[in-house]
Amino acid sequence: MDLSPLLEWLAIPSVSTDPARKEDVRRAALWLEERLKALGFRTELHETPLHPILYAERLLEGAPTVLVYGHYDVQPPDPLELWETPPFSPTVREGRLYARGASDDKGQLFAHVAALEGLEAPVSIKFLVEGEEEIGSPSLLPFVRANRERLKADAVLISDGAMFAPGVPTLTYGLRGLCYLEVRLFGARRDLHSGAFGGVAPNPIQALGWILARLKDEGTGKVLIPGFYEKVRPVPQEEKALWPALDEEALKRELGVEVLPGEEGYGPLERLWARPTLDPNGVWGGYQGEGSKTVIPKEAGMKLSLRLVPDQDPEEVAELAEAHLRALLPPGYRLEVKRLHGGKPVLTDPFSPPMRLMAKALEEVWGRPPVYAREGGTIPVVAELKEALGAPIVLLGLGLPDDNLHAPNEKLDLVNLEKGVAAIRRFYELLAASPA
Amino acid sequence: MDLSPLLEWLAIPSVSTDPARKEDVRRAALWLEERLKALGFRTELHETPLHPILYAERLLEGAPTVLVYGHYDVQPPDPLELWETPPFSPTVREGRLYARGASDDKGQLFAHVAALEGLEAPVSIKFLVEGEEEIGSPSLLPFVRANRERLKADAVLISDGAMFAPGVPTLTYGLRGLCYLEVRLFGARRDLHSGAFGGVAPNPIQALGWILARLKDEGTGKVLIPGFYEKVRPVPQEEKALWPALDEEALKRELGVEVLPGEEGYGPLERLWARPTLDPNGVWGGYQGEGSKTVIPKEAGMKLSLRLVPDQDPEEVAELAEAHLRALLPPGYRLEVKRLHGGKPVLTDPFSPPMRLMAKALEEVWGRPPVYAREGGTIPVVAELKEALGAPIVLLGLGLPDDNLHAPNEKLDLVNLEKGVAAIRRFYELLAASPA
């Protein structure tokens, strides 16, 4: 399979969260538009306040219709110094393709483009591709609502996730949601000398510590935001029976840890797939340089994300979290909370007709039936597509849990890219042959 | 008074903690050496592994001898964007001189140099000036121990502190000590996607929060390190009677706060001068950029300082703190503690003969007697000079509490510089005239 077009696409640093990369994000959209045009698609680039939405369609009267969703934007590459090869200089080593976006999501989306080369099965195909997935899809959600009719399909096909394990084809039927906050704490009006003022000055770093300790319980791993667990739907026993076994020892080895810390009373797989979590994703304040500086900083801050499960709502959780943060604020401090983005959790039918067809295609290509899994990550548009279009959704992850998503040395195993292309093509053939 | 030499000196960015500034630190030493040579001093530049120690002497047979201590290094200027004029472009505005080092300590040390211009009183003067004060004086302490005899003096004179308030000449008789640690926490072996791993992964930022919350009690402001307060010497009632009154409302206005948070059961002045404290001075981890990145970082860290009072010992406190940090470490994390620097607390005799002479000089120049104060900051060499030389120590602060030490827009009020020069000159005259 010819990787050169994908290498070219991955070389474009389409970091959607970085205002300095706006033009690069656009270039990545135009690159895909050209590619789809060459495959006979009619394309439309929809401008938004941030990054354009690419819609493309290749329709066949009377044929079943599939809507493919993906995103051409990527996470920031920091910390740069930890990459073995530069994030935007795609490199193949030992059967793996290394680059920011290799797995999330350009590489996986590319499989859907490559699957169309020489495809003869009569199917109508629509592509809906955004450049704001990594920042919460703010433009795509209203676009989907406004374009229900045009986006209509018999199945929605999405590859923006991971297989359960190497060699195990996986169909995903659930995703967690997300609520992402930026929290800033302010103390004195200026930075202070810790000798001259230590003992009377508010210290926002210390206050951040007090707050963090009361956001998540150290002993039980429970999130301490009042009301947080109220809408969490328990997992029925028959659903758990579907789940594959998690190799905890392998996971520990992979992460380089001796324990898998998490919420008391739940196993690791349930904690990853069906329990909500809270994690600070960044923290800053005061002096971070070499050596020592005896300063009491006037402010400190953190990024905080909560992964949500059905039926938690990102807006509601943001309200609860903000109220709790305000309640925890010690006297003498000021607090600012910014809601950066959110996404609803979603559950789909694991045995819908297109899921059954994809299961068959996967079994033919991999030589074993797929496992059924939820995923801990979030694709904000999936809940929206489910609500707006009412079509069955097929989540086909082609990545792997060790793909270093959102981390240095992101990669995609080429064997999964190749088998993915074959499975997607076979899916179209099965769909074209199935009774309407 | 001619400020141009001082402006020239302040323009040299002698940041001792920054390896990239090594040559600049040296230039600042050489600048002072030239200046003292021009005043008839015999000078010696002593090389150390980091920044040179400048020793200079101008001796008169039979005259009383004064040792002047100061430092030519400065704190880092970050955050740069908050300076109204650049930190190393000294600027005079409304009777104040703005520059990094204007008050701490080049400006104050310059007063001691300027006081010698045209001085006729017969006194022997020695200068001991280092470039490592802001990083804990690692070279100076052994130097003092090894050179006791040469450094011998009838009084040690130091200006590296602040007056109690504007217009209030101040003699300082106590300083807090310092124990400064860098703490780093490690979780998984690599950065992780918070969706794919949130629920099973250690989060070093969260763990830092749990630890911070158990280093200092939110309710009482007490440091929670076991044994921390054991050697703290209570302040006798008669000493407190010496203390000036603190204008708490003015301090709150200055800091822009509504409360002065601190240790329960002690007034603000006692907390600043005679109670130990703990303050995180920096914190970092994960994503700090614009927007959102859903990462669980593999590590996080903080800088932590403890201000100490008699009879706490920095080494002992570092042991206690490190043991407590290790005890607080949740399972699944690894901890690294680096001791960056320390300094012993010190108390001197407020009514020694040279202190009495300086009190007289101050009263003549300012038209009011000085107040007697302790200071919350640390000058590591003072305890060492006291022990090694046994000479009375005169701490004459010419700065002010709002000088923005270790913060943006550091400044020195020129009126204090000028009166300081006059008082120091008058002190030498009184000393020369006093019976041996």
UniProtKB/TrEMBL annotation, chains A, B:
SUPFAM superfamilies: Zn-dependent exopeptidases. Coiled coil: none annotated. Keywords: Hydrolase, Metal-binding, Protease. InterPro entries: Cyt/Met_Dipeptidase, Peptidase_M20, Peptidase_M20_dimer. Residues 173-331 form the Peptidase M20 dimerisation domain. The lineage of its organism: Bacteria, Thermotogati, Deinococcota, Deinococci, Thermales. It comes from Thermus aquaticus (strain ATCC BAA-2747 / Y51MC23). Pfam families: M20_dimer, Peptidase_M20. This is Acetylornithine deacetylase / succinyl-diaminopimelate desuccinylase.
